[in-house]
Every structure is written in structure tokens, then in C-alpha cells.
Task: inverse folding
């Protein structure tokens, strides 16, 4: 039975079954990275061109952009070499991921892949190719079943830090209280930043800027602000919705010339009209360099921008006014949360399949799903409303209390890389965090503490 199950896992893995979403097969590649990191292979090893190879050190698992492992050391044909190792499911993924265009991959000394159906000798031509499936001695079944339990990849990339010893001396309740306080401190800091924007740009203009910056997340915050500089909300007051979209897509660099680029049939009329307006009214001096590294297609900036425009249109370009009205019109935190979610919910817009005007997603995905909306509320809506309350001649204490209550009651947001890394550095065992990090405020506090430790 065990052999049959293992054979089934081998087959499913080779057929790309273990994939989180159709658009992003990163989970499958993670399994190959685990195999390499834990060296679940048995020699003697040979590259596809017949050179014998010995792994002295697999390298450090990279948590940022660039090759998967840094500072690996191998012996190839009796010569010791050091450098980066890149991991893929198949050799062709090197080109699919456009590594040939990135100089960070010039120093890769070994391209390790799970399988090589096309029987490449080297791939690309200047990189030695090692097929791990030939030498694999572990159990795919066990790896796949234990990915979450073992906290991959962070438990293996990040060792517990010295601060974990300090955390062990504190009770769960004390750590929880500490995280809540740090979370409130983070809320206050964000409110201060939003307040500076309100002073400089006014209520609705700053809501537009702060909301768009939040849509950029880690990768494209500055890029979204650059777009807002090119297209201020105040200058758009006399524009129709279609004209606003034309200038937004155009200034972002996402509006193709229909005379040169093949447009999807259902966008032809829209793009032609937008391009005509954009060509006559072009704005923005510098091209925006969008960062797509490690972004899943449904999180590409084209979709984030479209979501931002639709939210602004839904709120008649008065997002700041509408946001504050929710807090003034309701007292029940649950009702306020419900209204805030509705403020950013996009339904019935026929844009969920949008990736660009030239290509659609193979499966429609909401432009703003529930988890993204919750991120926006915690990271933008609550601190923005708090900033406004602080700026009144007489601070609105009731509004402040509403925001605090909602913030402390807000459930956990989706996890991210930094949070997982923080948990594995600060908690021993990491599973202890389940009894402590239970809401969004605790998550925010954890991130604030960890960022301070990294400084």
C-alpha cells in the first residue's frame, strides 16, 4: 500500500497536480526546494552532460528575489566552485520565469530540476543541469503532508533568534497584551502618516493616495504614488469615468496601442476609445517601472489599478467622505465593519477575468477578494479615519474609541512571509503563536516588533 501511495504522489507531482492556484504553481516548486535544501538525494550524482558532482553545501535558502539558494559549494569534475543554485520543476521554467533577462542569475553554478522530459543536456546552455528525480531518496507523500506542519519554507530558512529565549520566560497572556499594545502603536504610526497626507492634500485627495499606496503593498507602493502624482484626483473632477480610466491606464503604461497590439475582442471598442483620448491628453513624464517579482498574476499591478479605479468610481471619487460617514452613521462595531467591507466590495463589474487588454486569466478571480479587503480596512481605512479624528479642533473621542474597538476585535488577516519568519524567530515552538497571535492587532504588533529587531 505504501509503495502504491508513494507512486501516486510521484505521478501527481509530475503531472503538476500539487499547485495552489492554476495561475501560480509555486507550491510545486517549493517541494523541489525542500528536496534540495534537505538533500534528499543519494549519489553518486551526475549532471545531464555526464559530469560527476558532489554537494558540499546546498547553500542558504533565499527569502527575497533572485536565485533560490545562495553561497552553495559543490565539486564538479574534481573542481571546487561556489555560487548560487536555482531550483525548478522542469528546465524550461528558467525561460518561463525570464531569468535569462535578470543579471542576478548570471552567477548560478547549477540548475537543479525535478525532471527533464525533453532530455536537455544543459539548460540554459551555460548552466549545468542536475535532475533530482533520478537521485531522490525521500518520500513525496511525507513532504507534501508535512509542508504546513513543519512551517516550510520559514522553519528551514530561519533559525529561532535569541529573542525566542526571552519570549519563553513570558506567559501567553503577557505576550498577547504586549502584541496588542504594539499593534495599537503601529495603528497610531500609520495614522500619523495619513494625517500628514490629509494636511498636504486634503481629505478625498489623500484618501485616493493612501488607498492606492495600500493597493501597491510591498512591491509597488512608490509606483502607485507616482501614478497619483501624474493624475491627481483634483485634476480629474471634470473627467468622465471612461476618461479617468484612459488617463489612469495610460499613465501607468498599461494601455496598448490598438494599431500595433492585438487586443482581446471584447476590449476592442473600449481600448480604441481610451487610446484616442489618451493620445490627445497624455500625462506623466516618466515611465513607471512596475515590480512583478514573486507576484501571482491575479495580483499584478494592472488588476490592482483596475480595482482602485472601480472603488473610486463606486464612491463617486469621494472615498474619504464616504469612509468617515460610516463611522459617524453607525455605533455598532459589527455594523461598521460590514459597511467598510461593502465600501470596497466590487461585484457585477465583469472585470474579474482581467489580466491585461491582451490576455485574460484562465479562471476569473475577484479583483478584491475578502482577504484583500480586510487588509485594506486594517492598513488604510481604520488608520485613515483615526488620523481624521485627531485633526479636528476637538478630538472626536467617540470616533477614536469606535476605531480602537473595531481594530482590537478584527480577526486575523492573511499571513505573509514576514509574519511567518517572525513567528519562527520569536516562538519556540512556533506552534505556541496560535494561542497568542489571534487577531489583526496582534499580527500588526508582531510585525512591528520584528521589524524593530531587524533594524
Result:
Amino acid at each position: 500500500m505504501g509503495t502504491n501511495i508513494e507512486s501516486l504522489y510521484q505521478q501527481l507531482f509530475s503531472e503538476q497536480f500539487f499547485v495552489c492556484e492554476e495561475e501560480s504553481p509555486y507550491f510545486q516548486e517549493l517541494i523541489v526546494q525542500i528536496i534540495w535544501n534537505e538533500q534528499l538525494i543519494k549519489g553518486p550524482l551526475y549532471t545531464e552532460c555526464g559530469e560527476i558532482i558532489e554537494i558540499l553545501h546546498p547553500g542558504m535558502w533565499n527569502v527575497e528575489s533572485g536565485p533560490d539558494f545562495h553561497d552553495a559549494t559543490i565539486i564538479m569534475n574534481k573542481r571546487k566552485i561556489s555560487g548560487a543554485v536555482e531550483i525548478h520543476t522542469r528546465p524550461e521554467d528558467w525561460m518561463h520565469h525570464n531569468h535569462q533577462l535578470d543579471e542576478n542569475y548570471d552567477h548560478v553554478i547549477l540548475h537543479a530540476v525535478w525532471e527533464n522530459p525533453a532530455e536537455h543536456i544543459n539548460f540554459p546552455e551555460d548552466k549545468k543541469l542536475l535532475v533530482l528525480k533520478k537521485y531522490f531518496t525521500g518520500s513525496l507523500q511525507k513532504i507534501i503532508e508535512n509542508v504546513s506542519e513543519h512551517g516550510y519554507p520559514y522553519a528551514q530558512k530561519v533559525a529561532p533568534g535569541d529573542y525566542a529565549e526571552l519570549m519563553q520566560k513570558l506567559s501567553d497572556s503577557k505576550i498577547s497584551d504586549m502584541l496588542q499594545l504594539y499593534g495599537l502603536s503601529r495603528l497610531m504610526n500609520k495614522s500619523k502618516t495619513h494625517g500628514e497626507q490629509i494636511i498636504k492634500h486634503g481629505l478625498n485627495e489623500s484618501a485616493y493616495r493612501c488607498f492606492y499606496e495600500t493597493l501597491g503593498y510591498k512591491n509597488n507602493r512608490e509606483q502607485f504614488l507616482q501614478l497619483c502624482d501624474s493624475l491627481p484626483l483634483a485634476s480629474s473632477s471634470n473627467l468622465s469615468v471612461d476618461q479617468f480610466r484612459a488617463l489612469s491606464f495610460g499613465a501607468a503604461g498599461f494601455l496598448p496601442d490598438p494599431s500595433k497590439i492585438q487586443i482581446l475582442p471584447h476590449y476592442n471598442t473600449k481600448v480604441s476609445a481610451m487610446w484616442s483620448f489618451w493620445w490627445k491628453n497624455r500625462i506623466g513624464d516618466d515611465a513607471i517601472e512596475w515590480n512583478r517579482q514573486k507576484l501571482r498574476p491575479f495580483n499584478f499591478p494592472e488588476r490592482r489599478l483596475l480595482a482602485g479605479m472601480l472603488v473610486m468610481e463606486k464612491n463617486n471619487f469621494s472615498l474619504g467622505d464616504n469612509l468617515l460617514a460610516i463611522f459617524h452613521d453607525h455605533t455598532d462595531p459589527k455594523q461598521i465593519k460590514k459597511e467598510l467591507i461593502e465600501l470596497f466590495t466590487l461585484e457585477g463589474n465583469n472585470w474579474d477575468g482581467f489580466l491585461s487588454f491582451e490576455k485574460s486569466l484562465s479562471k476569473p478571480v475577484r479583483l478584491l477578494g475578502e482577504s484583500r479587503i480586510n487588509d485594506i480596512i486594517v492598513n488604510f481605512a481604520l488608520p485613515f479615519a483615526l488620523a481624521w479624528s485627531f485633526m479636528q479642533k476637538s478630538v472626536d473621542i467617540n470616533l477614536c474609541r469606535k476605531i480602537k474597538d473595531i481594530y482590537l476585535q478584527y480577526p486575523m488577516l492573511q499571513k505573509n512571509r514576514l509574519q511567518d519568519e517572525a513567528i519562527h524567530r520569536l516562538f519556540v515552538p512556533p506552534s505556541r503563536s496560535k494561542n497568542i497571535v489571534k487577531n489583526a492587532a496582534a499580527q500588526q504588533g508582531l510585525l512591528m516588533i520584528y521589524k524593530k529587531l531587524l533594524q
Summary: The chain has a mean pLDDT of 87. The first strand starts at residue 45 and ends at 46. The chain has two domains: 2-157, 202-410.
